[in-house]
Amino acid sequence: MNKNRTNGLAIVAALSVALLSGCEAPSLDGLLSTNNPSQPAGNTATTADGTQTNTAEPTAGDSSRSKWASLAETIQDVNGVPTVTNPTDLAVVVNKKRALPADYIPPDLVEPNVPFPFDEKVEKRMMRQEAAQALEELFAAAKQDGIELYAVSGYRSYKTQKSLYETYVQTQGAEHAAAYSAVPGKSEHQTGLAMDVSGADVKTRLEESFGEMPEGKWLAEHCGEYGFVIRYLKGKEDTTGYAYEPWHLRYVGKDMAKDIMAAGLTLEDYLSAKATAQK
Ligand SMILES: [Zn+2]
């Protein structure tokens, strides 16, 4: 990428890359409102048509779960939008074909005690409690190995994703936005289970080259031990719908993460295989 780009171009470029997966463009930090006082904090998710979704389901994401639902069993049509029925499940699959309920807010968002490359107290610091604790353990282990990590972008509300999307439409046009940006509800960051991670080098932040850095290699080797997977793998674009993103970590719980990383599978393929195997 052109290192001499202007700030304005950097914003556009960052949007172009980052919104492919719903990963955030860091250059837009100051432009966006991230608090949403109009939405109640709570653990009851209601779908757009008013249907209560069952957030009381067990959230166990480990491979000891007694039943593996197929992807087809965890999706329902809500006003024409294929919407997941298990938003609080640690194994929830959100992608271009599977949206979260528009008003879904994770029930237990907290801020992990890890380094961030910015000072603002914004929602993207947050993750769900279990994921946040696991991220702290991951970062501590990295530090012990001499690897310095930063948490760049975690939770993103539907409202924030909508603002990002609309900004993209305004700056790039509707057609371009449809082709390149993450539609609100379809960003994994809304689950509170994802975190974009970087090293100290800003040049490789949210760039594919991060995968070749010591930090990126360390993450690929060790993230599974702490319950995280590299969600968007190289060569699996047809399955995930997204380009390779060595910086985008998704928490699924330790047992499942170890299995997935050892097998080199996408979350989609892993869950499909599990559901098929039990039949
Ligand atoms: Zn991301």
Tell me about this structure.
The structure is a single chain. Helix 3 packs across helix 4. This protein has 279 residues and is an alpha+beta fold. Mean pLDDT is 82; it is low at 1-19 and 25-61. The chain contains eight helices and eight strands; from the N terminus they run H-E-E-E-E-H-E-H-H-E-H-E-H-E-H-H. 30% of the residues lie in helices and 12% in strands. The N and C termini lie far apart (48 Å). A hairpin with a 2-residue loop joins strand 1 (75-78) and strand 2. Zinc ion binds at residues 21, 23, 189, 194, 196, 248. The site of zinc ion has 6 residues, from strand 6. Pfam families: VanY. Residues 1-25 form the signal peptide.
Please estimate the helix content.
25-40%
Estimate what percentage of residues fall within beta strands: 5-15%
Give the spatial strand order of the biggest sheet. 5-6-8-7
What's the N-to-C terminus distance?
Answer: 48 Å
Low-confidence segments, given as residue ranges, are 1-19, 25-61
Tell me the Rg in angstroms: 18 Å
Note the overall shape.
globular
Unique ligands:
zinc ion
SSE succession:
HEEEEHEHHEHEHEHH
State the secondary-structure class. Answer: alpha+beta
Mean pLDDT: 82
The total tally of domains equals 1
CATH architecture: 2-Layer Sandwich
Question: Regarding CATH, which class?
Answer: Alpha Beta
Number of helices: 8
Largest sheet: 4 strands, antiparallel
CATH topology call: Muramoyl-pentapeptide Carboxypeptidase, domain 2
Keywords: Signal
GO molecular function, one term: peptidase activity
Pfam families: VanY (PF02557)
InterPro entries: DD-CPase-like (IPR052179), VanY-like_core_dom (IPR003709), VanY/YodJ_core_dom (IPR058193), Zn_M74/Hedgehog-like (IPR009045)
